[in-house]
């Protein structure tokens, strides 16, 4: 049972014997374990090194509280495993770069995978998405392979994002006006940001792309992602795409301001959605589609928001919202 934390089966038997008695002698423990005194003594020394037992007198031993001792040992083993995992990840990345460097020398066409079959595209995108470990950076714009705008897709997207965030993945998304145009899409994007995605908005993006772990990028060949895409592997081209993403990231506006939680009279969720739609340049008709209401209702809600912000114009509403830390 304790082999996972570095305690052998024999040492565990000795440890259990110490737990069952008070201030045992080595001879008593050896008899209990059915082993020689020398072997039992060596086991006690190993257990002492692990912090599980301690010497209390000449030839006498007692157990340290299992809750504190084993918890500390488990934490130590977990830290060692995480360190080792990080080292393996770094080595894996280095080996991957070496592999692709060799591939490019022998076959330059291996720089990219050109995919045109819809089933192959869907399968490879799924494979790449499942391989995410450290980074997921996206330039987001339509058209999409999935049913963006449908409730089931939004729920699936939130579940996946939550899982990635819990694993410590650096998730960044740059959205444009086209990508948040489908009804309810803006609300979903804000929820993804609340879950931990770092989300920003630009008025326009010239193309869409997804960069995974800074080791592969997926880019459509013809603007969309339904006809054909390319997978770009480690190379100067991938480095360029990474730098391009970082440039767009710097230009984009954050969708969630970090100080929102500190505002005493914070905005409601609907006010947050409205002010961000206004800030993005949406007109009443587009706002109505996002909220799933009539244009007249959307206009009334915008007017109410402007009264709340004590603003006479939409531009002034954006300024006041920024002053309050809403955007």
Please characterize this protein's 3D structure.
With 327 residues, this protein is an alpha+beta fold. The protein folds into three domains: 2-67, Orthogonal Bundle (Arc Repressor Mutant, subunit A); 107-254, 2-Layer Sandwich (Endonuclease, Chain A); 260-323, Winged helix-like DNA-binding domain superfamily/Winged helix DNA-binding domain (Arc Repressor Mutant, subunit A). It is 53% helix and 14% strand. It is built from twelve helices and eleven strands. The protein has helices at 9-19, 26-33, 37-49, 66-106, 118-130, 151-166, 185-195, 236-251, 269-279, 284-291, 295-308, 314-323, and strands at residues 24-25, 53-57, 60-63, 112-115, 135-140, 170-175, 198-201, 209-212, 216-220, 229-232, 253-254. An eight-stranded mixed sheet has the order 4-10-9-8-5-6-7-11, with helices on both faces. Helix 1 (9-19) packs across helix 2, helix 1 packs across helix 3 and helix 6 (151-166) runs parallel beside helix 7. The longest helix has 41 residues, at 66-106. The radius of gyration is 29 Å and the shape is elongated. The two termini are 53 Å apart. Mean pLDDT is 80; it is low at 259-264. This is Putative transcriptional regulator. It comes from Streptomyces glaucescens. Residues 264-321 form the HTH luxR-type domain.
Alpha-carbon Rg, integer: 29 Å
Total helical elements: 12
- Portion of residues in helices? 40-55%
Q: Which sheet architecture does the biggest sheet show?
A: 8 strands, mixed
Which overall shape is indicated by the principal axes computed on the Cα atoms?
elongated
If strands are numbered along the chain, what order do they take across the biggest sheet?
Answer: 4-10-9-8-5-6-7-11
Just name the CATH architecture of the largest domain.
2-Layer Sandwich
**What proportion of the residues form beta strands (DSSP E)?**
5-15%
Provide the structure class. Answer: alpha+beta
Q: And the CATH topology of the largest domain?
A: Endonuclease, Chain A
Order of helices and strands: HEHHEEHEHEHEHEEEEHEHHHH
Total beta-strand segments: 11
Provide mean pLDDT, rounded.
80
Low-confidence stretches: 259-264
Please name the fourth-level CATH homologous superfamily of the largest domain.
Endonuclease Chain A
Total individual domains: 3
User: How far apart lie the N and C ends?
Assistant: 53 Å
Oligomer type: single chain
The CATH class of the largest domain is identified as Alpha Beta
Domain HTH luxR-type: 264-321
Organism: Streptomyces glaucescens
InterPro entries: Sig_transdc_resp-reg_C-effctor, TrmB-like, Tscrpt_reg_LuxR_C, WH-like_DNA-bd_sf, WH_DNA-bd_sf
Protein name: Putative transcriptional regulator
